Amino acid sequence: MLRSLLKVQVRGFSCARIVLATKNTNVTPAINEDHTDLAKELVSGAPKELITERVARIYQEAKAATQSGQHNTETWKIDWDILNKGNRWENDLMGYQSSSDYMQGTILKFDTREGAIRFAKGQGWDYYIQEPKVRRFVKKDYSANFYHSKGPLKHIRTK
């Protein structure tokens, strides 16, 4: 009995909207306010320097040269330009490279290019789009290694 009681409480907690909708309580819906005139850093919580001084890059990652699969090539990503050398130093304790750039390791992923552009515009960021290179597949035959051609030998054997 205790187990069924716990399930009801957990279910009720996770489905709060349904529970509120079934009860006859006077819950007022949230008022939609227009926030388009607010400064972007007030809405997003990001520092002002991110909007005024940084440029975001929107790109699609290339396929790894060592792999034949297409993993991580469908998503579009946003990252930021690298700050100058004045913001980097060597940590005295461990010898690691340190940085004051808080956006250095941040990469945002999106399903579509338009989604990434919409997000960057919504945050008020300056951005540029790096178009992916078109991959070409050239079919190669093993026998092409042994075609006759004038000039020096293709295969030089030392033994």
Automatic annotation (TrEMBL):
<dbReference type="InterPro" id="IPR038532">
    <property type="entry name" value="NDUFS4-like_sf"/>
</dbReference>
<keyword id="KW-0472">Membrane</keyword>
<dbReference type="Pfam" id="PF04800">
    <property type="entry name" value="NDUS4"/>
</dbReference>
<protein>
    <recommendedName>
        <fullName>NADH dehydrogenase [ubiquinone] iron-sulfur protein 4, mitochondrial</fullName>
    </recommendedName>
</protein>
<keyword id="KW-0496">Mitochondrion</keyword>
<dbReference type="GO" id="GO:0022900">
    <property type="term" value="P:electron transport chain"/>
</dbReference>
<keyword id="KW-0249">Electron transport</keyword>
<comment type="similarity">
    <text>Belongs to the complex I NDUFS4 subunit family.</text>
</comment>
<keyword id="KW-0999">Mitochondrion inner membrane</keyword>
<dbReference type="InterPro" id="IPR006885">
    <property type="entry name" value="NADH_UbQ_FeS_4_mit-like"/>
</dbReference>
<keyword id="KW-0809">Transit peptide</keyword>
<dbReference type="GO" id="GO:0005743">
    <property type="term" value="C:mitochondrial inner membrane"/>
</dbReference>
<comment type="function">
    <text>Accessory subunit of the mitochondrial membrane respiratory chain NADH dehydrogenase (Complex I), that is believed not to be involved in catalysis. Complex I functions in the transfer of electrons from NADH to the respiratory chain. The immediate electron acceptor for the enzyme is believed to be ubiquinone.</text>
</comment>
<keyword id="KW-0813">Transport</keyword>
<keyword id="KW-0679">Respiratory chain</keyword>
